[in-house]
Write a structure and sequence with these properties.
Layout: H1 6-18, E1 27-31, H2 36-50, E2 55-62, H3 69-82, E3 86-91, H4 102-121, E4 125-127, H5 132-145, H6 149-152, E5 158-160, E6 166-168, H7 176-185, H8 202-218, H9 222-251, E7 252-255, E8 258-262, H10 263-268, H11 271-286, H12 292-303, E9 311-313, E10 316-321, E11 324-329
Parallel strand pairs: 1-2, 1-4, 2-3, 4-6
Antiparallel strand pairs: 5-6, 7-8, 8-11, 9-10, 10-11
Helix pairs in contact: 1-2, 1-7, 2-7, 5-8, 5-9, 11-12
């Protein structure tokens, strides 16, 4: 009997670990583009599911953004069927004129389709093929945007949305070269997405230009170090969240058309906690995602109060009224 390829063993172990808390016999969805990462994930999931009585369905999302996308999607579905996986192909409309850009619009459309498929199939989880390299690129992009610790946390290995959709990323500890080796060892021919070579996309520039320079100038292990940083920041964020939710119950009160927070309590907390509380209140009550500048302007109502008027925020406004900061709906 031929020995098992180390790459195959590594990916299978990663998938086995991720599925550990999924019940036997459950349905799981594998997001399958046909590239090496998702193809390795699909093959490993099919293998691991057999002994657990799980039903695996692949979901291939055709964004229709390039010539031949229909054929590429059909090819991915055929590969899934060859692995003993039931396949689904969904065509989505992408708003190429979105202010957020084509990449973000395609991602939103893809996740919406995957969420719908998961609901229709009553799936216990959707598995995504992001690797350690993807995680490192995500951290670098977040660092470049200056968007703070939340962005630098990268992608979580497990996330559950409010609608109950569970997302698993089993391969965040697996290098991209390993998924390519898995496909070679398994005689699987992956699809090579032309968009992964287009330098108009920031992620492609990071992958092909930035990461090689960092590896060359700073030495090997940069991708692993960035992934470790993301993991540590997620641990810190989880601890902060616990503290915030314990604190917020005592300092927040419902107000007319909004919600209010005690100035004294905010002032008594360190800046990191104070700012997180402000962002959480704005997001949970009004769905507003505050920038750092907006957060600091609200914080000045506590730390540098000089009679300034209400602060306009996305979907709400904040004003100091007596000993409280009051958030009310109806701003821009």
């Amino acid at each position: 009997m031929p020995s098992l390829s180390p790459a195959v063993a590594e990916v299978r172990l990663a998938v086995r670990t991720a599925l550990a808390n999924i019940p036997d016999g459950a349905v799981v969805i594998v997001a399958l583009s046909g590239g090496a990462d998702s193809l390795a994930l699909a093959a490993a999931t099919a293998f691991e599911a057999r002994s657990r009585g799980m039903q695996v369905t692949s979901a291939t999302i055709d964004h229709g953004l390039q010539d031949g996308s229909v054929d590429a999607a059909a090819s991915a579905a055929a590969k899934a069927e060859s692995l003993g996986i039931r396949s689904r192909v969904e065509r989505v409309q992408v708003d190429t004129g979105s202010d957020a850009g084509t990449e973000a619009a395609a991602r939103d459309a893809r996740y919406a389709a995957l969420r719908r498929i998961a609901a229709e199939e009553r799936a216990a989880a959707v598995l995504l093929g992001h690797t350690l390299d993807d995680q490192a690129e995500t951290v670098l992009l977040g660092l470049a945007r200056g968007s703070g610790a939340a962005s630098l946390q990268g992608m979580a290995p497990r996330r559950e949305d409010e609608d109950g959709t569970v997302w698993l990323r089993p391969m965040l500890g697996v290098r991209r070269v390993t998924t390519e080796a898995f496909c070679a060892a398994s005689d699987l021919g992956p699809w090579h997405d032309p968009h992964n070579r287009e330098h108009r996309f920031a992620r492609v520039r990071v992958r092909e230009n930035v990461m090689p320079v960092l590896e060359s100038e700073l030495g090997p292990g940069i991708a692993e170090a960035l992934a470790r940083t993301a993991e540590q920041l997620r641990e810190d964020a989880e601890a902060f969240d616990e503290i915030i939710h314990e604190t917020i119950e005592d300092i927040v009160e419902h107000a007319e058309a909004g919600i209010s927070v005690s100035v004294a309590a905010l002032a008594a907390n360190p800046a990191a906690l104070r700012n997180r509380i402000i962002r959480l209140v704005a997001h949970s009550e009004f769905g507003a995602s505050l920038t750092r500048t907006q957060t600091l302007e609200v914080a000045r109502l506590v730390t540098d109060w000089s009679g300034q008027g209400p602060i306009d925020l996305p979907g709400c406004s904040a004003a100091r009224v007596g000993g409280r900061v009051v958030f009310t709906a109806g701003s821009k």
